């Protein structure tokens, strides 16, 4: 059962008596558990890799160090960047260490402060505070900036700007070799160094995605255009890899995170984002329209076998995406595009 109203009558009293939770903490725990069950039910069906048989869904569990849900009644922001948290031992006041962006956003009165999640990572406590405000009405675009997402080049737009993934790939290779070398040593200092390296590659890649998405949205906003992206759902299953190195690079491709960064930054800026059908965008000539696999002479280069037009493959695909966006109805949700 995941209906919160029905669950309230079933578990509220028991959770308070058994675990000593306050009234609001009991409600927060109930809501968090219900959301976890709904997430498992909504997840795609898992299948055994050997037999292909459907695997049973497992009930979600929580570790002792799992995050704690707080609503607006169980935590309170105070002056001097302090926060008051309701615990089993009463109120606890903590000092928050805020960056410039977090402080400016947190004290911006145009945002409404909501609930929060408290969790511990490597001995440090973090408080994720949610804030909401009404979406700005998206501007009516005068055109679209086509954006092709890839692995070698993380993004390329129809204006000819390319955002290479060379730095991300170089970092990935370096961290993989460094981790392998330290794991072979197996000394205390090696384990300490492995712990220090934990998460650095992921944070660097996320920072790169934020920088790219920021520049793309700024370009679209400055030129009064929308942004057109390919709907890449299921791309990992469709692409074939033939070597271990390709497999590692392909699994490291964080296109969903980059797409999410573009989408939410565009939403804040009032820039419309639409998704187009990705079929044949990399094989179609942006000059004559001829579509053939032989047009892709290499991963990086495009050469039309009919009109002999040559261009960087990602740039050619971005132009095709931009033109497809102009021709199709404005679909802002890729799930609507897939459902027809």
Notable characteristics:
340 residues; alpha+beta; three-stranded antiparallel β-sheet; 11 helices
Please tell me about this protein's structure.
Mean pLDDT is 85; it is low at 335-340. The protein is built from 11 helices and 13 strands. The two termini are 33 Å apart. The chain is globular and about 75 Å long. The chain has 340 residues and is α+β, with helices and mostly antiparallel strands. The strands form 4 sheets. Strands 9-8-7-10-11 form a 5-stranded mixed beta sheet. Strands 1-5-6 form a 3-stranded antiparallel beta sheet. The protein is 42% helix and 20% strand.
Q: What shape does the CA trace take?
A: globular
User: What does the largest sheet look like?
Assistant: 5 strands, mixed
> Treating each run of at least 4 consecutive H or I residues as one helix, how many helices?
11
The H/E string reads HHEEEEHEEEEEHHHEHHHEEEHH
Which spans have pLDDT < 50 for at least 5 consecutive residues?
335-340
**Strand ordering within the main sheet:** 9-8-7-10-11
Radius of gyration: 24 Å
For the secondary structure, the number of strands is 13
Helix content bin = 40-55%
The amount of beta strand, in percent, is 15-25%
Distance between the termini: 33 Å
Q: What is the averaged pLDDT score?
A: 85
Helix-strand category = alpha+beta
